[in-house]
Design brief:
It is a single chain. This protein is of the alpha/beta class. It is 54% helix and 15% strand. Strands 3-2-1-4-8-6-9 form a 7-stranded mixed sheet, sandwiched between helices.
Length: 360
Amino acid sequence: MRTVGLFFVGLGFLGFFWTLFGSMLVSFVFGSLKNLLFKSPQSKSIENREIIKFDILIAAFNEEGTIAQTLKSFEECTKILGRNKEKILVRAVVGLDHCTDSTLSIVQKFKKTSNFEVSYLENDETRGKWFVLKKLIRASNADWVALTDCGSIWNSELLLKVAPQLRDQELVCIAPSYLPTGAKFLESLYWRLEQFVRYFENVGGGPIMVHGISVFYKRAALIDVLDQLGETHWFNDDVVIPLSLRLNNPHKRIHYLAELEKKTWVYDIGVVTKASVELTRRKRILIGNLQIIKHIILPRFQFFSLASWSSLRLVFKVLWAYWVSFFAIGLLIILETTTLLSDFLSHQSFSKMIVELLFV
């Protein structure tokens, strides 16, 4: 029985380990071997004299509490970009998903008072984030687009940092590191761990899951993905898009932008801590993950694809309750076996003592 208990504990431990570090190990180990055995083609870049068009696309539904700070954050980034004479044309487009608060008036006021170019699109009825993002992407004519949530606050040097990478023709996505503001110790530790994992996934072509608060995509590659995904309403855009990009472009890269033990590039001031909101968010994430596993990971799995093997981390994350159960069952079996053995030995010692008292 003790062996059975150890088996379940080991199974639960391996499940947890792959959930946390599986994609990192696959990317780092096999990515390093690939780079060692096969010479990578030299990365091509667009010449600096050419202007890069960069649209910041913001899906918004009743965001009067954060939209102004978010737009101000982008404006500060463009100022630093301009002072360094980078030839990148930046504008922001807000997709208003039939807002019923003062979000529209705040955007209009910002548009009138700022030198930063801001425009907006409106829906006549609430259609959801995925619909708004698709509408914004197809309406854009930029070279690169940033899919951004309200509440996103960028480090003022973020655009300056990514400026050279926007000219790299081997990149299809840039994912800045993320941290929610006011995060408690355990939550902050979790996000630091996620930064660490994604940082090392860069070796194998980049992560297949990114922080959805702000992600930069090459628009041409993104349009191909949208055409492929069809009319399905996808819940987790921060997984379905980068995963599809990696599967569609095995020789292109997603770059996770992080400086370990240094600055975080994007913060989130829009986190709502209400239990009901968090529960709804968790349900949406679970449904979205199951949707991706069913329609993308399993049907498109390729044995020699690093992206396919990395995507198994998502499968293991969905099955986290099983790893907890296996670990708990194994511990119970081990503890029960140990208790029975202890009781037996105690009983044997007691019996021996009685015999000695009576007959010796």
